[in-house]
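Colleagues,

For the teaching module next term, I've prepared a clean inverse folding example: a structure given as tokens, and then the sequence designed for it. I'd like students to try predicting residues themselves before seeing the answer, so please don't circulate the second half yet.
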């Protein structure tokens, strides 16, 4: 009976999963950009020291 009940909701679950994974990807990209900027700043700082 659980399978029959889940059939109509399948599309909703897939849409939810896709939107959640999309949000996670965007958040990861934001963190990656921040990390890249921080490493660039660190490199500039190292170059200024020498």
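(Answer key — instructors only)
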């Amino acid at each position: 009976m659980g399978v029959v009940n889940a059939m109509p909701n399948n599309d909703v679950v897939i849409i939810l999963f896709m939107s959640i994974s999309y949000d996670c990807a965007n958040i990861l990209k934001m963190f990656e950009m921040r990390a890249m900027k921080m490493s660039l700043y660190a490199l500039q700082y190292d170059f200024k020291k020498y």
